[in-house]
Amino acid sequence: MPNSSPASFATRLNQAIADTGSVTCVGLDPRKASLPAPLRDNIQGDRPESWAAAYTQFCCEIIDVVKGIVPCVKPQAAFFEQLGPAGMVSLGEVIRYASAAGLVVITDGKRNDIGSTATAYADAYLGSPTHPGPWGSDSLTVSPYLGRDSIEPFVETCDARGGGIFVLVKTSNPGGGFLQDLKSGDQTIYQTVAGLVTELNTERLDADGYGPIGAVVGATYPAQLAELRQAMPHSILLVPGFGAQGGAADDVKPALDQNGRGAVVNSSRGIIFAHSRPEFAQKFGDANWHDAVRAATEEMNQQLRG
Amino acid sequence: MPNSSPASFATRLNQAIADTGSVTCVGLDPRKASLPAPLRDNIQGDRPESWAAAYTQFCCEIIDVVKGIVPCVKPQAAFFEQLGPAGMVSLGEVIRYASAAGLVVITDGKRNDIGSTATAYADAYLGSPTHPGPWGSDSLTVSPYLGRDSIEPFVETCDARGGGIFVLVKTSNPGGGFLQDLKSGDQTIYQTVAGLVTELNTERLDADGYGPIGAVVGATYPAQLAELRQAMPHSILLVPGFGAQGGAADDVKPALDQNGRGAVVNSSRGIIFAHSRPEFAQKFGDANWHDAVRAATEEMNQQLRG
Q1: Which residue has the higher pLDDT, B20 or A44?
Q2: Which domain range does residue A30 map to?
Q3: Where in this chain does the record put each Orotidine 5'-phosphate decarboxylase domain (chains A, B) (predicted)?
Q4: How far A145 CA lies from chain B's nearest CA (Å)?
């Protein structure tokens, strides 16, 4: 391992936001049925290895389009795992390609476990360009159900490697409140998790006041998003639910700090499958899917700057 | 996909318990530093592919020892993921080898996500011999933080494929109560999750009264284990925390039903690294690590039958 101290994850991500003038996070969620026709047509038989190669090509070509105009990408592990082991080989290739292109990589795995098993996940997915882990990923989404001592091993790895995590606080799905909105004493469960996140960031703040423990807060609950921006002033927020899930630009602006940083807003389907969106289908279609990705990314950048 | 209806996961697992006369689940948690010396000594350099090959050999040789004397194995995804993509190729090989040996496979991934992403995880890891998924796994551990609508896609795949899930209810770690023990109204969070599990099993019961939605309840909280056995009468319980984590045979017996079924008790380190246990190290040592695995498995079987 290099002797130099790793650069803080929050510093790197906020710098990437400043460099690109964008808070758009492009979600890499490949799905067989949604791939553009030119990629689907290349599939030999129905072998996982063929689909995995198509996923790699699809995601790497998206990365070529969006690098330099967005700060980060978020590969969704589930869709790669759905192909079996060959899909995980593709995930590894996509992460390394994105990182080499200068994008911050948020691996969306919603992992967690206890003790040394949590350490294994942290070792797998947290890192930085100077202190990379086995996958070459910068950061990971992490579930809090197993409690404080399941989060702490990730925090230790953030310190050692310069990686980051995004703890699930308030998720974007309609049923997310089943546990998250339950009230115990004065606090909801999501507020309890937010309090833990803020506590863990203390003493780990960079010059801008951000720590390595980010939080997932859905765009689909704008009131809670504003509340949680206040409750977690040291966390970069990862905001899913924009676009296809219903969140609008005005809904997510409360996530940003006064400098327009401190949050990234994810869109997956709306960008990567833009060739199928009614308003883009006629103009671009499957054959010009790269142009549709570029147009959708620039549109989202514009909406979030407005 | 075959036309025949898949066999219920609970039926298959309880049958495996009856066939082997054992409720022991062998946790496959390979770790570089703990592998027996003959396997560590074979590593060429420090390449992930070399370690992955060692993990495959280690786990498959354990499977050769324990098949026929335990009903199931539980590979821990985190330790395979720690090796990067090569580790996931090893995980795939280990799952298929275990399944071909007639063992029920519980993939311990503590996965979950929302909507169609949860469906992707379910598609990846749930299945049965007649209706296998991409990994060849029977079942998956699942985190409930994202709520009811994140569990339902797994239930649908259980119905279609004959697979199962184990929802995290009360975990074995010291800090597990951080959220799980919080009380909202009359119920703790873990009781709320247990209620959801029982509700989802209803209308999915096999002839013995078990459904496909199992639950993880740690051996380290014996009082809650007895309480949760009552609260989830239709769930097979997956009980971690036995042995190295402190749970004893008397602690876990309340998990079993009157026929001695309805639960499996996991041990990882205590079995797979038995060659390092003080009481076994002198008798077996690294060279005879297979014999140590066999002795530890038979010892645990005996303790749980007593």
Answers
A1: B20
A2: 9-305
A3: 23-284
A4: 6
> Which chain B residues have a beta carbon less than 8 Å from that of A221?
none
Out of A31, A79, A114, name the one closest to residue B173 (CB): A114
Contact criterion met (CB < 8 Å) for A149 and B124: no
Encoding tokens for residue B53? 């090959």
Min Cα separation A179/chain B (Å):
6
Query: Among residues 237-266 of chain B, which lie with CB inside 8 Å of chain A?
Result: none
| Six-digit token string for B243 | 């042995």
In the set A67, A110, A183, A283, the catalytic residue is A110
Residue B245's pLDDT is: 80
pLDDT level of residue A205 (50, 70, 90 thresholds): very high
Rg over alpha carbons for chain B, rounded to the nearest Å, is 18
In angstroms, rounded to a whole number, what is the distance separating the alpha carbons of residues B246 and B263? 18
Residue of B nearest to A114 (CA): B173
Q: Is pLDDT above 70 for A2?
A: no
Residue A4 lies in a domain: no
* A195–chain B Cβ distance below 8 A for any pair: no
**Chain A residue with the nearest C-alpha to that of B119:** A78
Residues 212-241 of A with CB under 8 A from B: none
Any domain includes A85: yes
A32 is catalytic: no
Q: Is residue A2 part of a domain?
A: no
Question: Under an 8 A CB cutoff, do B92 and A85 touch?
Answer: yes
Residue pLDDT, tens place only, A250-271: 999 999 999 999 999 999 999 9
Q: Would you say residue B169 lies in a domain?
A: yes
> Tens of pLDDT along A234-245?
999 999 999 878
Segment A85-125, tens digit of pLDDT:
999 999 999 999 999 999 999 999 999 999 999 999 999 99
Interface test with A, best of B50, B93, B117 (most A CBs within 10 A): B117
Distance from CA of A77 to the nearest CA of B (A): 9
Nearest to B143 by CA among A239, A112, A120, A238: A112
| pLDDT tens per residue, range A48-84 | 999 999 999 999 999 999 999 999 999 999 999 999 9
- For residue A193, the domain's CATH number is 3.20.20.70
Percent above pLDDT 90 for chain A: 92
Residue of A nearest to B146 (CA): A176
Number of domains forming the structure of chain B: 1
In tens, the pLDDT along A116-165 reads: 999 999 999 999 999 999 999 999 999 999 999 999 999 999 999 999 99
